[in-house]
Design goal:
- The chain is of the alpha/beta class and 283 residues long.
- It has a single domain, classed as TIM Barrel.
- Helix content is 37%, strand content 13%.
- It has an eight-stranded mixed sheet with strand order 1-2-3-4-5-6-7-8.
- Strand 7, helix 10 and strand 8 form a beta-alpha-beta unit.
- The longest helix has 14 residues.
- It is globular, with a radius of gyration of 18 Å.
- The chain starts with 15 loop residues before the first helix and ends with a helix.
Length: 283
């Protein structure tokens, strides 16, 4: 693969807020997907005084070939973690809190009750804050999904990550139809929850496959969409097949809006939680 093009060169940001966020997270013993997944936007987001909380530990039971989060056998969940997330949301004054997790196939409900407990804890300490969850597929468990929906977050996201044809290589322990079913299943559980998903470009997908994915997401009732460039965390991960030009991202964004998505973010550095509040505020 050729060196990264100019549009994928990120400037380092130095801001006092970065240290405030770092100290808050360290003091409350919290993980973030920003650090664990090696997000290129972490410096920018920390400078803005925000972070995406990663609950249920920092070890994933799956081994997706695009993801920097380490896989293995995780520790038992920490029952006090939801309360610590709530304290961090309050300490940072977040108006839009984003919470995700590692996948926990070892737990009977995939960790659903911890998502629900985190929503409840944040509601108690920061009642005015919007809450966005980025959830795993819970191995298709509808009861687990219902428990999360019943907690009443403002947004539930579940990322498709890539097109159907690439699932076996990119997400060998996931299932394309199961993920779509999770999003469509939310429809009858809590009508007030916005449904969100995201995927990456640059893994070898074709234009027709991307359009088919977006059509499938709309058919599943997805309202919010993020599209970003895949960047290989290490040489051991899947290689980047293509660095997609910014104008192509813009084109896909326009197409997504024409399909009826209510909020769309499509650019090389976009990630599912990147400036998540801005997409919601435009609704």
């Amino acid at each position: 693969m050729n060196p990264k093009p100019a549009w994928l060169r990120k400037k380092l940001i130095a801001d006092p807020n970065q240290q405030l966020v770092e100290d808050t997270l360290a003091g409350l013993r919290l993980n973030t997907v920003c650090r664990e997944a090696g997000c290129p936007n972490s410096g920018e987001c920390f400078a803005r005084g925000t972070a995406t909380f990663l609950i249920l530990g920092d070890v994933c039971t799956r081994d997706c070939r695009f993801c920097a989060v380490r896989g293995g056998a995780p520790s038992a969940p920490d029952a006090e973690e939801p309360e610590r997330v709530a304290r961090a949301v309050a300490a940072l004054g977040l108006r839009h809190a984003v919470v995700t997790s590692v996948t926990r196939d070892d737990l009977p409900d995939g960790g659903a009750r911890f998502f629900a407990a985190t929503v409840a804890a944040v509601r108690q300490t920061s009642p005015a804050a919007r809450i966005e969850l980025l959830i795993p597929d819970f191995a298709g468990d509808r009861a687990a999904l219902a428990a999360v929906a019943a907690a009443g977050p403002d947004v539930i996201g579940h990322n498709m990550e890539t097109v159907a044809a690439l699932y076996a290589d990119v997400r060998p322990q996931a299932d394309y139809r199961r993920s779509l079913s999770l999003l469509s299943g939310l429809a009858g559980m809590n009508g007030g929850i916005r449904r969100k998903s995201g995927f990456m470009l640059g893994l070898g997908e074709s234009r027709a496959q991307v359009l088919a994915l977006m059509e499938d997401l709309r058919a599943a009732g997805c309202e919010l969409l993020t599209i970003g460039q895949y960047l290989a965390p290490t040489r051991a991960h899947l290689p980047v097949v293509e660095y997609v030009r910014p104008d192509v991202f813009s084109e896909y964004g326009d197409i997504a809006k024409s399909m009826g998505f209510l909020g769309v973010q499509s650019a090389p550095f976009v990630r599912s939680s990147y400036r998540a509040e801005s997409a919601f505020e435009r609704l």
